[in-house]
């Protein structure tokens, strides 16, 4: 085993890239759950976004149009969940699980003609002078625009949730939907908007995998990233800044296990490959102190 082969600077830079799809998906689900809705279909929306983004990117030749297509695809799929749970009052847990299975099947069908095709990738933001700074230059200034968009989204979600009237209404709906309805707020509309936002973010996260991380389409390429994003929301106690830390933690574990495999550590590859999911379970066991939104997962029965 040769640990000297692991470059700490490249490790941290790779960690940030690996965390980006998890960050998008986790932030989207965080907003959904703050509205009082539990959508377990994040994996399905991510894989749908991955194939929609890849198809649009390949056909248009633009990675950014691919991300837009992924957001639309993820949002449309999430609205199926929204209609079923908010209008037809189906069980949120069962519907979310069904959405994941549906998304996996739909993506496999849509992706049949795109196996082995290389998609467009977004250009890196190379700023002269800054990119050449020792250590910091490679870690901070050597990424594509979507990495910085993810960081900006953390700030935006935090501001909206804590500093805006829209965020106040969304949190009121999530804490007590009956009281929010009594005050005249449109509970179903607020929740549908949150669900669509969550689906769009999950779709973008999936497209980041197919357009940047790989970059090509492979069936089932999300590999459980949606479930990890759900765990990050719990780890973050429904707070955007902690979601960023959670995404970096899980992204770091993923990158570290790949680097340890490359360094030839004397452990079976299977043990290293399962490490991100073992950390997910451990975090869920240890981080159970955060208080969930009061109406999370509860069905809203409109009266009056």
Topology:
Elements lengths: L7 H27 L7 H19 L2 H24 L5 H19 L25 H5 L4 H19 L1 H11 L1 H6 L4 H27 L11 H11 L4 H24 L5 H5 L1 H12 L18
Describe, in plain words, how this protein is organized in 3D.
This protein is an all-alpha fold and 304 residues long. Helix content is 69%, strand content 0%. It has 13 helices and no strands. The longest helix is centred in the first third of the chain and has 27 residues, at 8-34. The model has no long low-confidence stretch (mean pLDDT 88).
Principal-axis shape equals: globular
Average per-residue pLDDT, rounded, comes to 88
- Helix-strand string: HHHHHHHHHHHHH
Number of strands: 0
> β content, as a range?
under 5%
Radius of gyration: 19 Å
Kindly name the structural category: mainly alpha
Largest sheet: none
Cα(first) to Cα(last) distance is: 69 Å
In percent, how helical is the residue content?
55-70%
Low-confidence stretches: none
Number of helices: 13
Summarize the entry for a quick read.
With 304 residues, the chain is an all-alpha fold. It is 69% helix and 0% strand.
